[in-house]
Amino acid sequence: MPFDLPQKVMPVPAASLKFTTNEEIDENYARLTATFKSGETRSLPYRRKQLLQLARMLQDNHTAFEDALLADLNRPRMETTVSEVAHLITSVMYAVENLESWAAPDPCPTKEAWRSSWGATLYKEPKGVVLIISPWNYPLVLTVNPLIGAIAAGCPAVLKPSELVPTFCELIASLIPKYLDPNTYAVIKGGVPETTHALALRWDHIFYTGNSRVGRIVATAAGKNLTPLTLELGGKSAAVVADDCDDLDVVAKRILYGKLQNGGQLCVAPDYALVPKAKVDAFVESLKKAHEEFFPEGDHPLTGPRPISDIVHPTHHAHLVDLLHRTKGKVVFGGQIHKDKSIAPTILTDVPVDDVLMGEEIFGPILPILAVDDIDEAIRVINSKPIPLVIYLFTTQDELKHKFLRETRSGQLVVNDTIMQLCVHELPFGGQGESGYGMWFGKTTFDVFTHRRGCITVPFSDEPFFQGRYRPYTEDKYQAACAPGKVKIPDE
Ligand code: NAD
């Protein structure tokens, strides 16, 4: 299909999104709980079938998903395909291929020979009925990727996509029951009141992706029921250009690529850049050059035929415009604003470390550049902020990577590129501190929704070994019990 296909799905205005009622939320919960209790979702052929159906749903509706995100975010088809639809099809098929090995019990070999006959084993069991709450910025991948793990683990799941992408929300709500077993998977359409109602129910796991303010609300609700929780939050992910980096054209291209995906509204977008003072001017020139390549003559980022994504909502747009008005930094490129809609890629220099742009995650196509004296100053800036989701380090020195591993903290450390860590299904992904907790991706998402249930079988024939543990306690029994604790501890 051509990438310039006209949009076919009709946009759904936010006001006409029909929200799920509290009664319907309760009915969904009761139905899914009954299904879980029936044991049906434990069967591997059942899980495999649902995963294949999910892959079919994505393939059959590839263009419809692109259309929905064109309608809600004005996002180019290319970006939706790369980061959502095609990515997810690979992710489902990866789960299908590995389902049996992921779900197989893990034997736990024991050190002591006499315990080896007990057959210590971890059995993989579905946790139960789970709730997946996702945000608007990558609504498909952030709803369906956790769902893949839930299905693979054998968990019924309720999906709560963001109300800020109404066309997508209607689409996924109509497709899930068509492709998947409606007794096991359901979608709640709604905003704060509906999510609040859902959060009061007792789930067996909650998977939340979004901002940290709401993350705290979700964690409080989960805590009331001791519900295990995964929090995938955001933060200010720095891009650091080291002194040794000479190919600034490639560095700038890679940073600008990561910054402009979805109009900068990506949790792992490089939020700001830390650049050696002597390299700032050359780096800005390289960014301008990269911009010229990305948007050649006639392909303007705001008014051209393939503009960058819109800012999701007028309030988010107003917030970004306000930051641009209040910053002490100097706009050296871009800065054009399309009223209530989008913002051109904007680069600023002379940005002080306490600037308004250095407060919260920017989440827009604005790149502040902070000039630093050396790499230690860059590390100090990063460490003065809450722990980010990612640090991007551009260097040719392996030693610098180790310095960053030792002296900074982040969900991930990526050297010499941006956002490509998301392509590695085998690499668990997650934040730390303010950027969240819990990991996912590939098998790790299966693990999120799986309880690893330990099991041993103690033979009756071992009874002679146990005489020392029973009452009456005696000096001999006590000395025998002390013996393992007398092991020699090495000096170093
Ligand atoms: P959002 O406003 O769509 O909210 C996320 C979800 O929370 C939605 O489903 C929404 O309905 C629900 N919600 C909102 N307010 C609520 C409340 N008071 N009580 C209960 N539920 C509520 O999305 P957002 O938070 O603006 O998403 C953007 C944020 O998500 C950014 O900070 C970004 O970095 C982060 N993010 C993180 C990841 C990751 O993988 N770590 C991925 C994408 C986005």
From TrEMBL:
GO MF annotation list: aldehyde dehydrogenase (NAD+) activity
Domain Aldehyde dehydrogenase: 16-451
Superkingdom of source: Eukaryota
Signal peptide coordinates: none
InterPro entries attached to this UniProt entry: Ald_DH/histidinol_DH, Ald_DH_C, Ald_DH_CS_GLU, Ald_DH_N, Aldehyde_DH_dom, Aldehyde_DH_NAD(P)
Keyword Phosphoprotein (UniProt): no
Active site per database record: 232, 267
Transmembrane segments: none
GO cellular component: cytoplasm
GO biological process per UniProt: aldehyde metabolic process
Name of the protein in its database record: Aldehyde dehydrogenase
Organism: Polyporus arcularius HHB13444
